[in-house]
Amino acid sequence: MTDSADRVLDTVRGLIPGMAATFGRSCEVVLHDYRTPERSVIAVAGDVTGRQVGDGMSDIGRRVLVAGDAATTDLNYLTRTPGGTVLKSTTIPLRDDAGRLIGALCINVDVTALGRISDAVNDLIGLPGTSTDESAPVTEFTAGLVERTDRIIEQHERDAGVPARAFDRGTRVAAIRDLANAAVFEMRGAAAVVAARLDVSRAGLYNDLRKIRETLDAVSE
After folding, report:
1. What is the pLDDT, as a whole number, of residue 193?
2. Which residue in 86, 102, 138, 139 could disulfide with 112, CB within 3.0 to 4.6 Å?
3. CATH number of residue 57's parent domain
4. Are residues 51 and 104 in the same domain?
């Protein structure tokens, strides 16, 4: 696996500068090696999201990692950075000779200005605005383990109206499921961080995770 994976990634790495240059300074191309999730970014051309070599995956990349060998190319979807930049993005899973997921090529194009120009033109001719600034989902591109964990759990706290330590079992399991779907547990030290944040023992956390995965396996069969 290692030889073919390295060959695929090295081949794609050579394409990145040209791809970014073709679209200009509004484009960023990022290459991920999923064998090292904590530092998956191995090449970057352009600067749209602030990614650097050695950074970990974004929320999107973690969903691809969770999908594993079943991951498919996601073309021209819209997302938004926490700072408000609207991106048109494409994520292409990369596989070794055996068809196993090894990484991804991600293309991000900043379309914020285009959306504002479109709104201005529509205002002039009396059509409804079409800006995607508010409708595009927010994606964390550089957040670490604690930030990702807090963001997901805080959403459940808002929905439940109670702090995480007061979650009933259903709410706790729902939060853990969302954390698992976001591939948080692929990050080193995740169990300790999540258990502390939810105020549960690691044994209890692992038990909930096991039941969640058993349920998912049963549904997929």
Report:
1. 87
2. 86
3. 3.30.450.20
4. yes
**Residue 59 located in a structural domain:** yes
Number of domains within the chain = 2
In a domain, 136, yes or no: no
Q: Based on the fold, state whether residues 73 and 8 are members of the same structural domain.
A: yes
123 part of a folded domain: no
Domain that holds residue 166: 145-220
Contacts (Cβ under 8 Å, ≥6 apart) of 186? 37, 62, 65, 66
pLDDT of residue 219: 47
Residue 56 domain flag: yes
- DSSP per-residue codes, the chain: -HHHHHHHHHHHHTTHHHHHHHH-TTEEEEEEETTSGGG-EEEEES-SS---TT----HHHHHHHHHGGG---EEEEEEE-TT--EEEEEEEEEE-TTS-EEEEEEEEEE-HHHHHHHHHHHHHHTPPP---TTTSPB--SS--HHHHHHHHHHHHHHHHTS-GGG--HHHHHHHHHHHHHTTGGGSTTHHHHHHHHHT--HHHHHHHHHHHHHHHHHHH-
